Amino acid sequence: MTVSYTLKVANSRFGGFSKLLFRWKGSIYKLLYKEFIVFVVLYAVLSLVYRRLLTEEQKRLYTKVAQYCNRSTDLIPMSFVLGFYVTLIVNRWWAQYTSIPLPDQLMCVISSNVHGKDERGRILRRTLIRYANLSAVLILRSVSTRVLKRFPTMDHVLEAGFMTQDERKKFESLHSDFNKYWIPCVWFTNLAAQARRDGRIHDDVALRLLMDELNLYRAKCSMLFHYDWISIPLVYTQVVTIAVYSFFAFCLVGRQFLEPLEPGQEGDLDMYIPLSTLLQFFFYAGWLKVAEQIINPFGEDDDDFETNKLIDRNLQVSLLSVDDMYQNLPPAVKDKYWNETTAQPPYTMATAAETLKPSFLGSTFDMRMCEDAEQSQLAEASPSVLRIQTPLLSRFFTAASPAISIKNFGWGSRAQPHLRRPRADGGFPSPYSTRSEDPESVARIEEEETEDEESRASESTTPGCRPGKAWQPEASETQRKELPLIQVKEPSSDSIGADWLEAWEP
């Protein structure tokens, strides 16, 4: 029977968990006390042999062996091995619980879609839900020792009312080498199809909904069967068990209180009872016992699933919902808050203080903004608004088009590669044709491009110039000093990639 202590820990208070330490049923003491007694007895025997029976030479030899065993305990990763294993076991334990088939959804669909107040309608609804419960009983008999003890043979299933004599004959006439828990589900589908042909199920949509719910129910039965069939690999369980037992075997020898090797040498405090070692045994061996108990929750331990109670509950609730509750509902009337805009149920004196607490409206609801009025004004969307971007990322996300034009690919030399001419504001021409450009900048760029074409045409006719290489006159020192510097303006929202270009040297 499951040990429930939810009410005991409903409120956090002083010594809340401490009170749970005095329970026996389902406790770690009940699981571990036998192994704990064996460990204490073995430790005491070794201690007596060391103190009373060994000679001085044998004690020195035993001391060396004990020191070796004590060092060896540090080489076994107990926390890692047990932590990973128990986590796997707990996840599997909860997954098995969620795979237990419950007929609640299926019985609601049957009650709402299989119609008829006459005897035939009652028979159809009760038979459909009984087939579902029969399938669950058959699969639980295969995985749970408690259910198998309750229904050891099919005669007990027949006597319990889960199947009739004719159904048992049909069930036993089907020979199969595998588990036949799925046969009632097939009976369910055939009976539902017959009810559709008879008009008890009004449309195919309702039949499809009924089949979908049955498939979900059958899938849970199948999952339980596979969880029982496919266990956690045996080698993993063996590794964890050997690690725990070998660790405490080393502790039996290495955690003894020893005399110093040399006469006159100060030794450790002889406490006779190794408290820290006993606590380690309690924690690590108890950890292993937790995994041992919940690795198969369909047994008969204190915290295993109460499958027999589930069978009783499922049968009673499902038959009640499809028979007595079929179209048996109270009249629909106006509720108490019919003319009220805001419905407010009353509170008792014990809970009246909760009405004083304001409703939660969001973490930033009471946040105070800046009192400066300028910070709260709306910003106008204009091309002059600066865009703050990371320069390095802008090179990747807002890269300009290739700088070399195919039309002018043959011009110039290798020493002077062609570069795209920058705009006057310091950026490259926008690759997006739909964006607005500064008219003055566009006109200036077009004028410069025209001058370049004229200079290339004049250079090609200059005498003494080699073909394929433009003639470039050198400027004097005075002309270099008089060259104006180009001032870079602040980048605008229309210049893509201009925010990372700091200056342009002609």
From TrEMBL:
Subcellular location: Cell membrane; Membrane
InterPro entries, per the entry: Bestrophin (IPR000615), Bestrophin-like (IPR021134)
Keyword Transferase: no
Biological role: Forms chloride channels.
Iron listed as a keyword: no
Transmembrane segments: 36-54, 75-94
Pfam families reported in the protein's UniProt record: Bestrophin
Membrane topology qualifier: Multi-pass membrane protein
Chain intervals for the UniProt region annotation (Disordered): 415-506
Catalyzed reactions: chloride(in) = chloride(out)
GO molecular function, one term: chloride channel activity
Keywords in alphabetical order: Cell membrane, Chloride, Chloride channel, Ion channel, Ion transport, Membrane, Transmembrane, Transmembrane helix, Transport
Protein name: Bestrophin homolog
GO cellular component: chloride channel complex; plasma membrane
Organism: Lophotis ruficrista
Comp. bias intervals (Basic and acidic residues): 435-445
Family: Belongs to the anion channel-forming bestrophin (TC 1.A.46) family. Calcium-sensitive chloride channel subfamily.
